[in-house]
Amino acid sequence: MGEPVAVGLVGAGPWAERVHAPVFAAGPQTRLAAVWARRPDAAQRLAERYDAVACTEYDDLLDRCEAVVFAVAPEAQPALAERAAQAGKAVLLEKPVADNLDAARRLADAIGEAGVGSIVTLSARFAPQVRVFLDKVAEDSAGSAWAGARLTCVTGAFLGGPFAASPWRQARGALLDVGPHAFDLVSAALGDVVDLRADGAGAGWTSLQLVHTGGAVSQLVLCCTAEAGHRYDVELYGSAGSTRLDLSEAIDESAFAVLREEFAGLVRSGGDHPLDVRRGVYLQELIAQAEHQLAART
Hints:
Elements: E1 5-10, H1 14-26, E2 30-36, H2 40-49, E3 53-54, H3 58-64, E4 67-70, H4 77-86, E5 90-93, H5 101-114, E6 118-120, H6 128-141, E7 146-154, H7 167-172, H8 174-177, H9 179-190, E8 193-201, E9 205-212, E10 217-223, E11 231-238, E12 241-246, H10 247-250, H11 253-269, H12 277-296
Helix pairs in contact: 4-5, 5-12, 9-12
């Protein structure tokens, strides 16, 4: 094994503290070299915990790392990630990749022009159980196509806990936060989305019906303001029968170990990843369609 990839972490909030900092500090494929955040005191505390350098200037972080991991709000990510790409750094992006479609497309263009690698943190897709599930779905569909799917994500994440005070989550709701995961999973299972209908009740609850290439139909229910009855699962139906996966159990520490390994491999070997910024733009397009429909109904 060669030298671990020197990673710079942008952000020092709950996700950076709970996930990205410990994951990329753990190695062996990576080491946490530097931390920068808009709150220098938070960056200092997080960096000290992992023997990393707390940077007061973003350019200083770029000088100290080979790749940049982002844990910032969607409105802040595009400009920072563009600068990282222009500096020749591979980027690990948060979902959604931006707070609007135009910014997402500009970011994808900048990363493409820079020729650096990118991955979007669609955490479920790195979970071994999810990969086995999707592989089995693909094998079964070769002989008998799946007719539809249902994905339910009902949590109380916006009512309390580390992400409840997030302004963008409170303003834009579950669609912007967990929507990328939901769109990604059902389109990975059933094919690209060719038609979409969205209904909802404010930012608290969203229901979507999607038509996929080949004619399969999926239904998504997204809510992060439920006081009880929490669930996060996906189920497919068709002539092959039905198959279900509890995503709340499938996504664990092993998913982030796979993410770390694949991001380090991308940095060292170059090339593309199927979950790169272009995938992020595709998901942003679906979010934009859904938000447009919801706004038209208010």
